[in-house]
Amino acid sequence: MKNLLVTGGAGFIGSAFVRHILRTYPNYHVVVFDKLTYAGNLNNLKEVASDARYSFVQGDIADRHTVEQAVKDHQIDTIVNFAAESHVDRSILTPDAFIQTDVVGTYVLLEVGRQYGITRFHQVSTDEVYGTISSGSFKEGDALEPNSPYSAAKASGELMARAYYETYKMDVVITRGSNTFGPYHYPEKIMPLFITNAIDNQPLPVYGDGKQVRDWLYVDDHAMGIDFVLHHGQAGQVYNLGGGNERYNIDITHQILNRLGKPESLIRYVTDRPGHDRRYSLDCTKLHALGWKPAHTFESALQYTVQWYVDNEWWWRPIKDGEFKEYYQRQYAERLKTAQA
Ligand code: NAD
Ligand code: DAU
Fold first, then answer.
1. Mutation test of ligand 2: which of 93, 158, 207 has the most ligand atoms closer than 8 Å to its C-beta?
2. Which residue, 8, 171, 179, 304, has fewest beta-carbon neighbours within 10 Å?
3. pLDDT tens-digit profile of 92-117?
4. What CA–CA distances, in Å, run from 207 to 94, 216, 338?
């Protein structure tokens, strides 16, 4: 592996992966291929912008011509596909872009990868493809029962990747990551939304009863887990990649408020997300047996993350003052009007 195409590398996890790879492998070249949707942000890549081993191509993974050009121009041998529409609530409001990017875009990357003899294709998938589980934990062989347009699109993308392994013997690996948090997280997701709202003394809109469970994974651990599977995973295999930190949403909410010294009166219980998955839980025995475990504890990573948003308003304030405002109105205005404290 020498020349990596990192699609979606200007997003939250993709940019952490790019920073990690350039720090870790002196001989690797990284080409970020990103459409720069509302979620893509070149500020996330400031740290590597002047690194000679890094290049940026603006393009859509569903546009075959641009993908081919990037693969040819940069003699790409490895593709790591982070590019996706990634927010469940937006997939409920407007599913189209999810099908286009997460399904069609993944297919285009696989097809170009096959044509140009890519030596490894890593599909970044999600624990949401399994659907919800009330007790126990999902194993890699369990059925996929996705419940939102987002998770159904992600499941379709990874099934196509699987098919390219089975049919064309393309070297494909898949990771199913759990809920990720950390710096540079677009403030539509619960952690950065609640931290930045609390900083501004704005309400924190908790869906339903707040007793949904997510398994939290620090972003650098997610990046390192992907690096590990990229280098050590077996072709055709799927790996669960979880943090082992299951928490109720309401507990996360309390922790954020406590760490910022803000009052619990900011909490609002609002109308639930339709089709809301109650609990995610991953059995990560397979990846642990291969030799990978997360390096960060949840508590220290959460503390670092909260402080990062306090210290880095330059990053999130322009986002919240921009496109995000319109989305926030659409998603929350009615909910907050009818909310319960
Ligand atoms: P993100 O929304 O922060 O970033 C997505 C990136 O993809 C952005 O830079 C965006 O501009 C780019 N993009 C979107 N459509 C594109 C297109 N058509 N062509 C090229 N680029 C495009 O997402 P994230 O949270 O960093 O998630 C990255 C990947 O990890 C996604 O595939 C997501 O499904 C998966 N994942 C995320 C989490 C999580 O908790 N955030 C957990 C598990 C898996
Ligand atoms: O599990 C992995 C997935 O985690 C990734 O595949 C997705 O890309 C990522 O967005 C994330 O999905 P979730 O839907 O779990 O994340 P989100 O931050 O949107 O919501 C986390 C939980 O918090 C969920 O139970 C819904 C709840 N929530 C979320 C928001 C935005 C609220 O209660 N209020 C909110 O305003």
1. 207
2. 304
3. 999 999 999 999 999 999 999 999 99
4. 19, 18, 12
